[in-house]
Amino acid sequence: MKEIVIISGKGGTGKTTLTAALASLWKNNITADCDVDAADMHLLLNPTVLETHDFFSGVVPEIDAELCTACGLCVESCAFGAISPDIVINRIDCEGCTVCHHVCPVDAVALRERHCGFWYRSDTRFGPLVHAELGIAEENSGKLVTLIKKEAKALAQSVNAETVLVDGSPGIGCPVISSLSGADLVVVVTEPTVSGVHDMDRVLQLAAHFRVPAGVAINKADLNEEASRRIEEKTAAAGAVPLGRIPYDQVFTRAMVDRKTIIEFDRGEAAAAVAGISEAIRSLVRTTED
Amino acid sequence: MIIAVASGKGGTGKTTVAANLAKTLTDRRVTLIDCDVEEPNCHLFINPAPVQTEPHTVYVPSVDKTACTACGACSTLCQFKAIITIKDSTLVFPELCHSCRGCEIVCPENAISEGSRETGQIHRGESDHITLVWGSLRIGEAMAVPLISSVLERGTAFGRERTVIIDAPPGTSCPVIEAVKGADFTVLVTEPTPFGLHDLKLAAGMTRKLSLPMGVVINRSTSGDRGVHDFCRDEAIPVLLEIPDDRRIAEAYSNGILMVDALPEYREQFRSLLETITRKAAGR
Questions:
Q1: For chain B, how long is the longest CA-to-CA vector?
Q2: Across the interface, do A202 and B139 touch by the CB < 8 Å criterion?
Q3: Do B128 and B49 reside in the same domain of the chain?
Q4: Which residue among B10, B137, B209 sits closest to A137, beta carbon to beta carbon?
Q5: For A5-34, what is each residue's pLDDT tens digit?
Q6: Which of A206, A273, B110, B195 is the most exposed place for a label (fewest CB within 10 A)?
Q7: For residue B105, how many C-alpha atoms fall within 13 Å in the half-sphere facing its CB?
């Protein structure tokens, strides 16, 4: 079983569009939506949810007003400024470090498990989907990513799936690092713009840092020919594999509005380009170590 | 006034709106703060020179091995598995540390003191009327929030009379909240697609939870469907500006050129965007 993670550095370059297309083209795979901050895969795959699970992570303190003497020790000790002078905990700023619980001389601070969201095991027209919803303004997206990947992998093993397709987050921080752990291949989707090139550079460095082989697909390639060439040069220089080009085409937006993958929606150049990239990824994944 | 530009979904045009807005306000000093420290992009469009760079460090515990009795009080307290006691020694895993200083507080032997670790860099530079402050997270570093917080502190240190524009990272979790929570007004940038709508709902929920006034900019507004417009109408969230789907804007962007420079007809729109924001932030 191979795990392929689709990331981009810059947001909105087409990660989910490509991942959903791969899910529709490949047989016997599990899809995992690890962009838990802004999970959109379900909008294209229209899943039937089979299981809903709570996601708890860390703790949140609770102050017992009856016991509290308002001595202010917790306020002084909180490194995150999450407790106001009148001893009210701001859940958004609280990191769950438990220092307040520890320093309280009258044991007025209790610790409760923190409910951060939900994760789901679902079925779709292209096979199983494991996805999640992080609560609004909640933390620990990295831990939720790790959990989704673990569940997707366990499911893949139990049904003997060949591939786990992981739709990642933008950026290079906590959730992206979590999504790279244990991956066999990284597919970077970029675009020929100054920011696309800059962000791809950083994400390729990240893949190299964690020693995961990488391939690069260029979306909206004809928007700027010179920048597309620069991406291909940088891809080669980073020891990554070019996977192909996707044209700048309104049909991608129309497919999304119709809640279909580009493969289902289009019979033209756009779908053909994506199918070509799918084949290039397939060949590349065969070369990765077992 | 502090204006934060955010969006749930990535790639909707946060940097475009933030940088064009900053560029338009030629009648005053503007500070543009790029809080997307994982993938900062504003400098590619503003081109500040020269650039001053300083390292950004966070607190991590430093254990005095001669004083440590390996009692385990620190590792029992630590919720992040950043300090672990094995047999007769205490080990620190700095990259897991959240800098709460709990280990230092609980150590009965005073064996723990302040150490530091570099998580990235803070940059600052000027271009015409704009002071740009941004951060770049070190490759392989997971924790973005402390760097975002320092970048904001640096960028807002010039006094309240300056107009401050914050370019937030994508999403709705910790890094975004850190970037927007001190703002007077939040601009949510979206696109009129099912993805754009879904993520706008999350971003609007986050903004409500923080009790910040907000408005929406719809980018590529002539493509997609009407879902975003309907949502804004039903939720009484003002649509502040619509930017059409224009290949000329995308081409200029691809070369690092702002639309107010490439296509001057948009200048007036960004000027009136600021007027609307100023009015709404004052509650009028």
A1: 71
A2: yes
A3: yes
A4: B209
A5: 999 999 999 999 999 999 999 989 999 999
A6: B110
A7: 21
